[in-house]
Amino acid sequence: MGTDGMSFVAETGSGHIVAMDGAPEGGGHNLAPRPMEMVLLGTGGCTAYDVVLILKKSRQDVRGCSVKLQAERASEDPKVFTKINFHFKVSGRNLNPGAVERAIHLSHDKYCSASIMLAKTAEITHTMEIVEV
């Protein structure tokens, strides 16, 4: 539902409330993420969840995972994502780099619905770093 100008409040299927807004030049007030930013946020959360779950199932001592997405969009409508890089920072004790790489690939190729959908229009790449804690 619209709240003011181009600001919106959405309720998810699980009953959570999320605010979204547009850029000032498009009538928004820049008070909340834009809808396409929410797409990236959800995709990052989806793949980070997968990576941690896969590493835990692999008996890796994972303590944290963050992922930063950098994306490019088409210049013409529809302005779909054309390139997205996922930079994973995985922390833990004695993490096996091969296991981390495998978890990332499994997420992108098999489990993360969001990144698999985005791969229909975007070139998906990933980088990673492992932090010993």
Specify the overall morphology.
Answer: elongated
Q: How many domains would you count in the coordinates? A: 2
CATH architecture assignment of the largest domain:
2-Layer Sandwich
Overall pLDDT metric: 95
SS field, number of helical segments:
3
Q: What's the CATH H-level superfamily name of the largest domain?
A: K homology (KH) domain
InterPro entries: KH_dom-like_a/b, OsmC/Ohr_fam, OsmC/Ohrsf
Organism: Cupriavidus basilensis
Protein name: OsmC/Ohr family protein
Description:
This protein has 133 residues and is of the alpha+beta class. The protein folds into 2 domains: 1-32, no CATH class; 35-132, GMP Synthetase, Chain A, domain 3, CATH 3.30.300.20. The protein has helices spanning 35-57, 97-111, 113-118, and strands at residues 2-4, 7-11, 17-20, 61-73, 81-93, 123-132. The strands form 2 sheets. A 3-stranded antiparallel sheet has the order 1-2-3, with no helix packed on it. Strands 4-5-6 form a 3-stranded mixed sheet, with helices on one face. α1 (35-57) packs across α2 (97-111). The chain is elongated.
